[in-house]
Design brief:
The protein is α+β, with helices and mostly antiparallel strands. It has helices at about 15, 25-35, 55-65, 75-80, 90-100, 105-110, 115-125, 135-155, 160-175, 185, 190-215, 225-230, 245-275, 275-290, 305-315, 350, 370-375, 395-410, and strands at about 40-45, 45-50, 70, 135, 325-330, 330-335, 335-340, 345, 415-420, 425-430, 430-435, 440-445.
Length: about 450
Amino acid sequence: MPVASPPGPRRSIRTLLVYGPGRDPLSFFGNLARTYGDLAHVHMAGEHVYLVNDPRAIRDILVTDQRLFMKGRGLDRAKRLLGEGLLTSEGAVHVRQRRLMQPAFHRDRIASYASVMTEFSDRVRRGWTDGGTIDAAQDMARLTLGVVGKTLFDADVESQAKEVGKALAATMESFWMLMLPFPDLLERLPIPALRRSRAARETLDRIIYAMIAERRTSPSDRGDLLSMLLMAQDEEAGGQGMSDLEVRDEAMTIFLAGHETTANALAWTWYLLSQTPEVEAALHEEIDRVLGGRLPTVADIPALPFVEKVVTESMRLYPPAWIIGRRALEDYEVGEYLIPARSIVVMSPYLVHRDARYFPDPERFWPDRWTAEFKARLQPFAYFPFGGGARRCIGESFAWMELVLVVSTIAQRWRLRLVPGRSVVPQPVVTLRVKGGLRMNTQLRIKN
């Protein structure tokens, strides 16, 4: 018979009222895992929260027993921005939306996006100057925003990258505040961060609805996601199409999630490469040998295994989706312990990916660890940067291809080095960002 609760810090008035992670969630959850093991219980802001660090239990929660859980508190709060999009919807709505969107992420269609990815990467790298200084995080966000805009919405949104970036930053700034109790009440108060967040949502809505309105006036099929959303008819729902609001929610989800996470993964990759010259040299050797100075294509990806290892290892250390939450729909047993119904369950790829039981020398950036033999013996869900189960990221294949092509294209011509004296600090909000941006110096490798 399971005991009442797994170990955790003592309950107090403060833990009942305050959202425990505060300004340093990575340290907070990391300390919980180190102190209490693979399952820890803590009271936070009126919720019972269970941190799960065992890959077998994570697999059961995300895959085997996924029907016993719904999205967690974080995704519920994200509805304020994303509405009932694929990331936040539940049940029949989620199943329907995923079915309607799946064709846009078919393998053959994704392959057709490759030239756009390399084109935008080439455009960014040609805008740099030898010995110049860039914000690599900002430039990667601009690049991936342009790719998502063109491939999935057939729209030029690169010119709006600065506006979108500012709006996103304002939205992220308020994330932890909205995790506090009574978020609806908080949103009505004149709190500057929340006021900026509301204005940011209005900005993003204006951009998305403008794309929808423009496309409604000329509803031809351009072969992109937006065309599919606007033309989709759910045969299982009597041929019903999607309303502007439904299209907006899905477009907003893909528009933001589709570029924010990839941009963060790229930024962290440039940081890690700048700190490990021997890894960077091996990366450049493979790129130069395979490409011979030309832009990469989708056909080159199998011949760039070290680039893929670099990206894989970067997302091990700095997974963009650093935490995943679920809410238990009924009492749930994990080993000898009981998680009561309505409790929040959180699983952190950031923590599990740095567990020495699965990754020797876990703090080291070591792409060569990803041999076929290592991957074959790695426990399932010891590495899960894209989640798992029915809610596994629909754009995973899109992201992998984009990451390999962008890294290959930019590293072909440039080395990036941290500006001296700059500290790099993770900022765990909805995604794992680089706090304050990533100032780097550009060093030209090859002129062409």
